[in-house]
Amino acid sequence: MKALAIATLFFIAALAGAQPPTTAVSQTLADYNRSPDAETASQLIEALIGAAMEPPEGDLNVLRRHALKLVANRQEGAPAGVGAGSSLVSLKSVSDLISGALDTGAFSKTTQGTVATFRANLVGTYRLFTGDCPAGAVQGYPACITENPAAWRGISIALSFDSSRQDQVSPSDPANPSGSIGAVLLRAQKGLAAANVRYEFFRPRNKHSKELAETWDKNIKDLRAKSGDYARALGEGPSLLVAEAIKEGKPAELSALLSPLPENQRLAAAQKFIADFLAGPGHQLAAEKVAAYLTARKAFLKSEVEFFQNTLDRKLFTLEFTHQRPKDEPEYGSVRFISSFTVGTHQDDQSDAEVPDWEITFNAAGDFYYNSTDVQKDRRLRDFQVALQGDHKLWRWTFLSQPTFTLAGYYQRLTDDTVIQFNSDALAPGTGIPLPKPANVVLKGTKGDVGIAEAKLTIPLGSSGVSFPLAVSWSNRTELLKIKGNDVRGHFGFQFDLDKLLSSLKK
Amino acid sequence: MALQLTKNAARDFSGKAGKKVLLGIRGANGVKADILATHYNGDTQSAPPFQITLGKGDNGLVVVFAAAQEGAQVFVQEVDSADPNNTQVLAQPFFHASLPNVTILIRVP
Prior knowledge:
Chain A has 507 residues and is α+β, with helices and mostly antiparallel strands.
């Protein structure tokens, strides 16, 4: 028995050694060569089963299609302050997105009101266009997880487009709005509302540190809760085959394959062996179980990657630069510092994991004009802002899905009266009179303080992707408009996560 | 309580039906490692203590684990529930995030 098992293992090792077909196979083969025994052999066989069932590596079109299929709306909002975007606070994003890139694709898209934001990171973009992982990825395609601490890892970019921007006709006589004489055509800055570059600063944890051990122990419960399905699928699928292979040895089939084969045919031969094995008497059920295993594996790897990123890396802070292109103001730039942290912990009833009571996000930002013609008193600083947001999942809530309660505050100091810009570069309607080039006008009395506070309850409707936000906001004024008294508004509506909706429709 | 599994020549293990086996794990060179889940004889566990009850027949014990370093060797062990220092190594796989598991064959007559 031992001889047969060892023969099997040597055969598979030789098979895989000719041309390692996947990262997992090459890794397990190296392990097997280092320590040729039943354990490493088991892993090697499982890796070969995985390789036999997954899309062939090297077929870039297949992989690209696979990647595109996985693209999802895993969303981060528009940068704060863009168009109709509703965020008071820029939320942390890149690490989530890198986790998102693991299984979702290169780009993410979100829509807030009329503003659509596309965000991309370098790993995902590289993967999408090459159909492969960057060099050194410790987890193969499509996850492409890398432990590479190089600087590029923290970069992401975002572009926001506002579809609401329309040209407007301003009549010369308000009493006669349809009169064309003297009317002015105000041309809106269409399309791009903002372009954003974000960089996240990480510090890898020392793998032998007490800090890592504490974070590990805190996060491992959550990962365990998501590991059971994978273990079951393994036990009912590939591991069953491994046990069978070790028991049976499969000498007849193997001996036929032991004859020398051209290098490029060896993986195909291994795949055929596994396929024949699965199709053999008593193994039909196992074939279905192997397919179920691959599904469970994909879900598990996603959770595993999130665990490692949350455990091994410590995100310090985020810096971002946003090129703002307002509808009716001169263009300006924003530099923003973003930091997030958690306060308090409690035990999650469902996963038994320790989860934070509150997730706090802090922003500090300054806006400045590029062009000296846009400024007054030689002061390019347009304004500065601070914002704070706390999110608390109402984990004791037992009716329907658990809602999230959010409290947010925003303070902005406008250092001078705001400048608005008329982008009139056409003819006045019905007159043929050329309008002057873009002109800046100072909006008197707008200098001062802007404060906004918001309380919001977001109730998800199951896992459908639909949620029901209820919010109350208070503000003392707007940027361009001073108001008497305070402005208090209530908001409600429906939010749709199209990706989840489409996913549920596909089921 | 003593250790319940006996190592066979073929590097699989034997034991008696109904006996309970407590599992543990440690990483080589002090690398942090933990068992995430196990599956044996139709039973799945995803929270400690990871303890299986030996069932008749040849069954694969699946151990899914995590380690803080890619490529680190780990030792999956049987632990004496009465004396945690009394252990035996059941498997010594290397941790790879893409295949974080090992299967151990247990034969129970």
